[in-house]
Amino acid sequence: LGIAADLRRALDNGQLEVYFQPKVTLADRHVLGVECLARWVHPAHGEVAPEDFVAVAEHTGQLARLTEVVLTAGLRRCREWADADRPLSVAVNLSARTLLDSRFPDLVEELLTEHRVGPGQLTFEISEPGMLNDIERVLPTLYRLRDLGVRLSVDDFGTGASSLAYLRQWPVHEVKIDDSFVQGMATDSGDLAIVRAVIGLSREFGLTVVAEGVESELTLELLEEMGCEIGQGYLFSRPLPYERLEAWLSAQT
Ligand code: G
Ligand code: G
Ligand code: MN
Ligand code: NA
Q1: Which CATH number covers residue 63?
Q2: Tens digits of per-residue pLDDT, 32-88?
Q3: Which of 89, 153, 146 is nearest to 121 (CA)?
Q4: Which residues line ligand 2 (CB under 6 A)?
Q5: Which domain holds residue 103?
Q6: Does the interface predicted TM-score (ipTM) exceed 0.90?
Q7: What are phi and psi of 16, to 5 degrees?
Q8: pTM of the full structure
């Protein structure tokens, strides 16, 4: 398959880009960190959706390499921000499949040491549906990552149809409410009820709650009223390439 070879070339030649989207406190828009999001512009086909090239990577034995490229880019920037006296944490998305690799935590430990980044500055986001599929097999890796001191986040929460009780059993620190509910909450009472329930339960269990897909001031106000402290979304900033994120950060203060 041509696309698999193209992806391999892109990974080898540094053509896979990493964009960064700020995670901010809703009360005062203080930037706590960034989510790292992979971007690939194919020389002939143009921009390829991350879901698509992540799937290609998964099916052609390149997932570990893709994850390492994104993680390395994130840790490198994390180190630079710390050196510039403007510490920001970084979040990297993981496919559930990466958690089936029992050596992955060793790689994480090595890269943290190499880049002199404290484990608490790194969060891994794992989507809820992926987590549910294979929870028994991914749990050992999750425990090892947690023991390293890395933060773990359940991404796209609410889309996996898991019982809310799972939140108590999983070794995670953070819950990200899926953007579909956040985008709907200003106009749809069902979405609003789901968002309220997830915020309440997360707080009850001592988990950080992040609302993703915050696009309007009204949504921001509703979230704040319900006790959600952190958000991410176009209202604050789209995912940006490094230079544009730097400009955006400078304009914040
Ligand atoms: O950035 P965007 O909204 O297009 O992301 C689409 C999806 O791709 C999201 O679910 C995001 O978690 C996923 N994604 C982006 N970058 C990575 C990555 O480096 N690894 C994995 N596994 N998923 C990613
Ligand atoms: O699944 P995950 O949460 O990792 O996906 C992040 C994706 O959400 C990225 O592709 C990013 O581009 C997208 N995104 C981030 N903020 C917003 C937003 O405010 N509105 C919409 N529609 N998408 C967003
Ligand atoms: Mn994510
Ligand atoms: Na999502």
Answers
A1: 3.20.20.450
A2: 999 999 999 999 999 999 999 999 999 999 999 999 999 999 999 999 999 999 999
A3: 89
A4: 21, 37, 93, 125, 127, 155-156, 179, 212-215, 232-234, 239
A5: 2-252
A6: yes
A7: -80, 125
A8: 0.97
